[in-house]
Design a protein that fits this description.
By secondary structure, the protein is mostly helical. Helices cover 27% and strands 0% of the residues. It contains one helix and no strands. It is flat and about 30 Å long. It starts with 17 loop residues before the first helix and ends in a 16-residue tail after the last helix.
Length: 45
């Protein structure tokens, strides 16, 4: 999954920070399977 424009548009009912909180919990439950990049960071595939 590669998210784009995260936090740019309010398109759902949950608070803007909730999806990130959910993904951080999922990542903690699956170490090494989810990578969070900083703005501008590159991940060669």
């Amino acid at each position: 999954m590669i998210t784009m424009h995260y936090g740019t548009f309010d398109l759902c009912d949950e608070p803007m920070a909730k999806p990130l909180e959910w993904m951080q919990k999922i990542a903690a439950d699956h170490p090494g399977e989810v990578i969070f990049l900083k703005t501008g960071e590159v991940l060669p595939l």
